[in-house]
Design goal:
Helix content is about 0%, strand content about 45%.
Length: about 110
Amino acid sequence: QVQLVESGGGLVQPGGSLRLSCAASVSIFRFYVMGWYRQTPGKQRELVAGIGARGSTNYVDSVKGRFTISKDNAKNKMYLQMDNVTPEDTAVYYCNGDPVRWAWGQGTQVTVSS
């Protein structure tokens, strides 16, 4: 059973940067399309960035040019570099497959505020 653990969230000022990490209990990143999702209260969870098994990436328009998804297959980890963040990026961030394949982790809270 795959367990996903997100970390790296916190409080950051507008325009600042943050790096999120996703660790998996088994080796999955080299085999599956993976994604970073985020959710705010009252809204559906949305996919904001994805990375293919071979490393191709895609982003939702609202984060394009500001967020960078990457992975390290050897370390069994995936990352989301968040630059020039805005208050609209405030959310709980999760990782999972794309499409969703496994139980959700606890997520990591990102709060953008001055």
